[in-house]
User: Which sequence fits this backbone?
């Protein structure tokens, strides 16, 4: 190696300059992201059913939503959770699925199924899971002496506006 450097100094000089130039270009053009832009093939449909037990939610909401959403093309898995006051249905799609097109299909399916839900159910919310959703606050609210409807009104009218004012 030393003999090559002595015999051909200009070749070594050009190689060193090329490495330095490539390093400078890479350093100035490279973007650093904590979380790169990744499109995840998941959608969640959340439906509230105030005052209902998990069993009622499963029977009247979750099964109806699963039946309507499971028929969409490209769905790999349907997972659901029935809890007190809400139902959550998670749809997993194939890796290279166009999520904008799927969102339209899911919205149409939810609109068809909405008429079969109990009257006291809230409108189903469709959420697309993304990496930007990781920075969130999770909180629960309890107010002694209030039922679920009064508590919901209190949260919407008092608590949420206060939280939204925080920078």
Assistant:
């Amino acid at each position: 190696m030393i003999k090559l450097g002595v015999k051909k100094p200009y070749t070594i000089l050009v190689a060193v300059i090329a490495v330095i130039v490539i390093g400078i270009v890479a350093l100035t053009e490279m973007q650093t992201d904590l979380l790169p832009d990744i499109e995840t093939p998941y959608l969640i449909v959340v439906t509230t059913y105030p005052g209902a037990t998990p069993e009622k939610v499963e029977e009247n909401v979750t099964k109806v939503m699963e039946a309507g959403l499971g028929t969409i093309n490209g769905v790999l898995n349907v997972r659901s959770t029935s809890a007190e006051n809400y139902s959550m249905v998670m749809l997993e799609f194939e890796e290279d699925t166009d999520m904008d097109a799927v969102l339209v299909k899911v919205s149409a399916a939810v609109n068809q199924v909405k008429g079969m839900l109990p009257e006291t159910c809230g409108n189903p919310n469709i959420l697309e899971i993304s990496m930007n959703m990781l920075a969130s606050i999770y909180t629960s609210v309890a107010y002694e002496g209030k039922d679920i409807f009064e508590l919901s009104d209190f949260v919407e009218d008092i608590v949420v506006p206060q939280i939204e004012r925080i920078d």
